[in-house]
């Protein structure tokens, strides 16, 4: 017992040492990097619904917590303060809804700002500083929309967009690396996200980018008379097939597997994967959106219904205008106007590994009779009453007007 207590104490001490080392290492970064005398803005581009992190790359050593500020345009008097003035706000990204206010979608950890499920309206300037208004570091964030994204299926011979070049400006796409194969052991798919970038010699000098004279299309560094051209090019995604083997589990040594383990395997369906499964009932005729646990838009995610593969080449959003079941660019599975044949088990793959199941059952929603005390009934009676009174008043006004007109005209002469 004493040996176990001693081991636990050693582990706790080791954990404290590693934590202190991490904080000291973070402090060393601030010692090595001095803040610029003139505030500059680093360009950063993301796709909508992605989660991004902005580190505060420099600050004085005496500053123990930072405050983040958001401005839509530089010098705008409407500034949003993103801080809890303690630097320890924690947000559970699993409970964040797309389209919610940014004040409910951010977190500050180790002086870095994390924005969950970014929206196009989150594009703008992010400044790291103090609550007194002293700024240390700035970012120019460009969140590009997915509504009109261009999709190219390489297996079908489709190609990405060509560069658009004019006299003083050039528009092109910068692609991220291919994702991992979204399935293993069977044919899967890989995805490659491309964002719109612009090359011009007239970019604002206060904005910095990795490549000179190159920035994202929605950056504030692009001159105002060139910004209208950025609408000519949208983000794009390329998709291709792939095949990768699954990681095999270690085979137990001979004699290790007991008879009870062998008996427990009997009666199980061989095609049913062993993953955590959630049960859900959905009324017929309603819409349903299923999210893969722990997945983000930049991850390689795939969906199956029972043993049927839901490949993006057929089920990606906007592939077919009449689609009722589709996968959006945020890796969510949509089922619109749920029908009886939609019931089954939907399996989710993340980064090439099946991680979860979603067993869906459907039912007819029982219609209940409303009473006079229901809020809906009171509201309907109120609206109908107002409409009836309005029509009655209009009817009376019309007839009174006709009578007045006849009186003013006098008797009709024959």
Question: What would you say this structure looks like, in words?
Answer:
With 414 residues, this protein is α+β, with helices and mostly antiparallel strands. The protein is built from 4 helices and 23 strands. It has helices spanning 2-32, 259-265, 312-315, 375-409; strands at 41-47, 52-54, 67-71, 79-82, 106-109, 112-115, 124-129, 135-144, 150-153, 164-165, 169-175, 187-200, 207-208, 214-216, 236-243, 277-283, 288-290, 301-305, 308-310, 325-327, 333-335, 344-350, 353-363. The strands form 5 sheets. Strands 4-3-7-8-1-13 form a 6-stranded mixed beta sheet, with no helix packed on it. Strands 9, 10, 11, 12, 14 and 15 form a 6-stranded mixed beta sheet that branches. It has a 5-stranded mixed beta sheet with strand order 16-23-22-18-19. Strand 7 and strand 8 (135-144) form a beta hairpin. The longest helix is centred in the last third of the chain and has 35 residues, at 375-409. It is extended. 24% of the residues are buried.
């Amino acid at each position: 017992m004493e040996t176990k207590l001693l081991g636990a104490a050693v582990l706790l001490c080791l954990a404290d040492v590693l934590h202190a080392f991490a904080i000291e290492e973070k402090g060393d970064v601030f010692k090595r990097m001095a803040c610029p005398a003139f505030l500059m803005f680093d360009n950063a581009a993301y796709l909508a619904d992605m989660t991004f992190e902005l580190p505060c790359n420099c600050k004085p050593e005496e500053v123990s917590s930072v405050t983040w500020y958001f401005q839509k345009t530089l010098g705008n008097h409407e500034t949003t303060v993103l801080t809890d003035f303690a630097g320890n706000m924690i947000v559970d990204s699993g409970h964040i809804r797309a389209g919610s206010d940014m004040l409910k979608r951010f977190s500050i950890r180790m002086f870095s700002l994390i924005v969950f499920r970014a929206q196009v309206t989150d594009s703008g300037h992010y400044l790291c500083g103090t609550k007194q208004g002293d700024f240390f570091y700035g970012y120019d964030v460009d969140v590009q929309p997915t509504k009109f994204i261009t999709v190219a299926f390489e297996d079908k011979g489709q190609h990405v967009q060509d560069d658009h070049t004019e006299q003083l400006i050039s528009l092109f796409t910068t692609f991220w690396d291919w994702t991992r194969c979204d399935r293993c052991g069977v044919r899967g798919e890989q995805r490659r996200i491309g964002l719109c970038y612009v090359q011009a010699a007239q970019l604002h000098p206060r904005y910095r980018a990795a490549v000179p004279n190159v920035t994202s299309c929605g950056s504030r560094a692009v001159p105002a008379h060139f910004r209208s051209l950025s609408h000519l090019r949208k983000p794009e995604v390329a998709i291709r097939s792939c095949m990768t083997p699954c990681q095999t589990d270690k085979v137990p040594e001979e004699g290790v597997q007991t008879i009870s383990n062998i008996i427990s395997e009997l009666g199980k369906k061989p095609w049913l994967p062993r993953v955590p499964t959630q049960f859900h009932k959905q009324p017929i005729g309603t819409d349903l959106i299923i999210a893969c646990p722990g997945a983000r838009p930049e991850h390689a995610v795939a969906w199956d219904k029972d043993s049927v593969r839901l490949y993006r080449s057929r089920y990606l959003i906007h592939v077919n205008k009449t689609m009722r079941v589709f996968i959006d660019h945020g890796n969510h599975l949509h089922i619109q106007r749920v029908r009886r044949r939609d019931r089954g088990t939907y399996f989710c793959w993340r980064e090439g590994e099946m991680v979860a199941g979603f067993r869906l059952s459907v039912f007819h929603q029982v219609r209940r009779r409303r009473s006079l005390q229901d809020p809906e009934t009171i509201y309907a009676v109120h609206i109908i009453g107002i409409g009836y009174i309005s029509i009655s008043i209009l009817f009376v006004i019309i007839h009174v007007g006709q009578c007045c007109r006849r009186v003013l005209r006098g008797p009709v002469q024959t």
